[in-house]
Design brief:
DksA C4-type domain-containing protein, binds zinc ion, elongated
Amino acid sequence: MKPRMGQGLGRATTPHSADTDMGETQIIGATSIDRNRELQRVEAALKRLERGQFGHCLYCGDRIDLERLQHDPAVESCDTCEED
Ligand SMILES: [Zn+2]
């Protein structure tokens, strides 16, 4: 009787499918946060475009290198300020 109970408990305490579900949820959560942040950066860049401030550093107001903007159009700072 005792061994049978042990087996039953062992199966119950290792819910394999639940572990897999948790892992997948965590991965999806991380990517959706990344996507959210990226969206906010793009929206901020569009607002700067509306105000005629696009392509200028948020911190010092200098023009951002064209190469930098081509690499990441939503970039918010120039080379100098990025390093700080
Ligand atoms: Zn700057």
